[in-house]
Task: inverse folding
């Protein structure tokens, strides 16, 4: 016996989230394949728990880190979403939150921190610098986009992004987690269909 | 009494004075050390504070270094310049780190950027770039693609080089030791919650006691100075906000002031009022964040929420007028980007009133606490002499009894028209560094209150050509940012973009001072001491 319509996003309606074709594709794929009742329900429960307790490793190198601190304070209060626990050890974190420019000296450190994290792990690139190098793109020592080093799940643009933008990005990540199959084999490093990065020609 | 220039001419007859832009005294390299020493030990006007040391590639194979000096007694300033001797060994200059300690780190920066080697400097290592970096990026002939991204982990050497010039003109290389093989070295950073950014301190310990700290910088070095050289003047402004984002207004104020001075642009009174008020609001916001971070580093979480509660009020005021919360991009050449919001005056007044009434809460919860007192008093002592020699400006210097407030001694904006106290403490411990900043919050409120009711009518911006060409010469400006003296050094060749643009980092001398301040203290206090020094790493690395 199988259950259908495995991933549900009751609390986050698709029309509120633009540009998430690949999430819908993931949902389709999961629905098509179906899952056993026990496994399916366990998956749902686990993903519900995981998506509401995303603990981040805040790799704050510059400005965005200060806005992240503002998120932790009372006004924006990210504890409402279960993000408030920031771990400073990669072993205890679910999420690598890259806040600020990554340059050539920091890049190996970033990769090392990512490698040290336990699966399942996610990466959120916050701010223009992490996405593309931002205003420092032409510099001699700035990485133009951290997705060249580690796979990125969510990009939050801005310089720095407003707290609302942070929440939007983080809720997108929650959504992604809820759409996943936790039990059973899945190569998490595999790039979802349609999300392959087009190689830029120099 | 002779002027400083006349004195230099007397000690060194070959010295020449250049007056394009600011006055620069050019001293030959072989006389440099002697002139510096005499200036430092002068009886009437001792030039005991070295504001900055800037390397410049002159483009014709010459490498110059500019020394900006100030006397802490008279606050007189002088700028020296010396061309590095070029030969087979590359550019060479005598080191002045025996005269001013701050030269130790600034000469390393000049070496890193230009490859100028300073003879007699005990530690000629790279500062911001990887140790295996090839070439010197701020040289004009540097190939921007010559160092691709290298994902190998970097190995840091435990030994360093020193070069000495022998009388026959040859160079002797000596090896100095940073850490012995049997030293117990703890690596703090670059990913550490309490280093306030990507700072790394290699710390050697004797039991629990700190023996030596070797700061490894450059984990957020973005090459802003090199990037500025290919941008027009209005474009370069965008970088200043991203240096020390907690002093965004003041940094931008400094660069705008420097360009306006060079181009001969007069801003209106209204602009001066707006800029001064914004600077002070920014200072309060920064000090509130300092408080929040310090207490959180020391393990208290509740005061963190207090600090952010008031800080959000300031950010709201910023946002209404400038459109940005943290990075506002507000100052422009010739004025400000937009006029103040209609509710600005009322909201600022409400805020300063609220701040005065609420600051007792900060003191009730933290200042009076036994834990805070025990962990801050008599910890991390920095003497006045060391503070001056290390160039540790701002609250750190003022806590050690060094009156160094640029607002007071070299007024800009409207600081000569307002009445305010320069907060100076004398003990130079963590406690005083903390108290200086808490008192400055109230002092800034007082400055704002004097100005807020009198903002005159007028234009918020004078018309400036979008492509601005500055006359040839050297121009500088300095402001008191939230954590010390922030300076701009600009060399113009008459082009639409700067030939060389350098920012005096407020935090670089503070990180350099960590070794002096923490030595002999327990490792557990290192974070609290670092918190009271209050540095921002992107401003150090630039």
Result:
């Amino acid at each position: 016996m199988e259950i259908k319509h495995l991933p549900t996003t009751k609390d986050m309606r698709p029309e509120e989230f633009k540009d998430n074709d690949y999430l819908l594709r993931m949902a389709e794929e999961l629905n098509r394949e179906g899952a056993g009742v026990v496994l399916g329900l366990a998956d749902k429960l686990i993903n519900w728990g995981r998506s509401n307790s995303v603990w981040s490793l805040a790799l704050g190198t510059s400005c965005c880190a200060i806005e992240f601190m503002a998120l932790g304070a009372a006004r924006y209060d990210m504890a409402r979403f279960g993000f408030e626990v920031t771990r400073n050890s990669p072993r205890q974190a679910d999420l690598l939150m890259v806040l600020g420019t990554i340059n050539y000296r920091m890049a190996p450190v970033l990769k090392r921190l990512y490698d040290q994290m336990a699966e399942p792990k996610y990466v959120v690139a916050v701010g223009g610098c992490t996405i593309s190098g931002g205003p420092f793109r032409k510099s001699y020592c700035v990485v133009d986009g951290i997705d060249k080093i580690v796979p990125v799940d969510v990009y939050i643009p801005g310089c720095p992004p407003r707290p609302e933008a942070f929440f939007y990005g983080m809720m997108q990540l929650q959504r992604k987690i809820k759409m996943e199959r936790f039990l059973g084999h899945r190569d998490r490093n595999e790039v979802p269909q349609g999300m392959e990065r087009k190689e830029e020609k120099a | 009494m002779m002027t400083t220039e006349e004195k230099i001419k007397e000690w060194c007859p070959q010295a020449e004075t250049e007056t394009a832009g600011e006055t620069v005294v050019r001293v030959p390299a072989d006389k440099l050390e002697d002139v510096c020493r005499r200036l430092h030990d002068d009886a009437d006007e001792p030039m005991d504070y070295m504001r900055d040391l800037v390397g410049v590639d002159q483009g014709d194979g010459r490498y110059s270094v500019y020394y900006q000096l100030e006397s802490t007694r008279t606050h007189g300033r002088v700028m020296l310049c010396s061309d590095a001797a070029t030969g087979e060994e590359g550019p060479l200059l005598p080191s002045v780190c025996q005269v001013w300690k701050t030269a130790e780190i600034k000469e390393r920066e000049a070496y890193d950027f230009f490859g100028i080697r300073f003879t007699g400097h005990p530690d000629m290592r790279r500062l911001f770039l990887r140790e295996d970096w090839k070439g010197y990026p701020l040289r004009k002939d540097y190939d921007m693609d010559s160092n691709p991204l290298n994902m190998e982990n970097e190995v840091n050497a435990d030994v360093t080089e020193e070069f000495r010039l022998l009388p026959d003109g040859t160079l002797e290389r000596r090896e100095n030791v940073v850490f012995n093989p049997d030293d117990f070295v703890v690596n703090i950073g670059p990913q550490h919650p309490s280093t306030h950014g990507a700072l790394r301190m290699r710390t050697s310990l004797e039991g629990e006691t700190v023996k030596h700290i070797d700061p490894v910088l450059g984990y957020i070095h973005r090459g802003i100075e090199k990037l500025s050289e290919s941008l027009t003047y209005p474009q370069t402004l965008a970088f200043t906000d991203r240096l020390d984002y907690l002093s965004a207004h003041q940094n931008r104020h400094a660069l705008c002031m420097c360009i306006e001075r060079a181009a001969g642009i007069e801003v209106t009174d209204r602009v001066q009022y707006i800029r001064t008020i914004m600077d002070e609001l920014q200072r309060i916001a920064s000090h509130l964040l300092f408080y929040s971070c310090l207490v959180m580093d020391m393990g208290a979480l509740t005061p963190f929420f207090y600090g952010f509660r008031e800080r959000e009020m300031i950010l709201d005021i910023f946002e209404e007028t400038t459109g940005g919360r943290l990075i506002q991009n507000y100052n422009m050449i010739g004025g400000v980007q937009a006029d103040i919001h209609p509710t600005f005056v009322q909201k600022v007044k409400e805020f300063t009133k609220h701040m005065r009434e609420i600051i007792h809460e900060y003191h009730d919860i933290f200042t009076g606490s036994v834990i805070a007192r025990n962990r801050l008093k008599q910890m991390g002592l920095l003497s006045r002499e060391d503070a001056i020699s290390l160039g540790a400006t701002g609250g750190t210097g003022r806590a050690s009894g060094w009156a160094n407030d640029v607002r007071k001694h070299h007024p800009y904006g409207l600081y000569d028209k307002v009445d305010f106290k320069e907060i100076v403490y004398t003990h130079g411990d963590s406690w005083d560094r903390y108290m200086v900043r808490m008192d400055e919050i109230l002092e800034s409120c007082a400055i704002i209150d004097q100005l807020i009711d009198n903002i005159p009518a007028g234009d918020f911006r004078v018309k400036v050509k979008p492509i601005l060409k500055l006359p040839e010469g050297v121009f500088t400006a300095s402001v008191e940012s939230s954590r010390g003296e922030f300076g701009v050094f600009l060399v113009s060749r008459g082009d639409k973009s700067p030939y060389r643009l350098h920012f005096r980092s407020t935090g670089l001398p503070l990180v350099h001072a960590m070794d002096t301040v923490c030595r002999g203290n327990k490792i557990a206090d290192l974070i609290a001491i670092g918190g009271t020094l209050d540095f921002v790493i992107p401003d150090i690395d630039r």
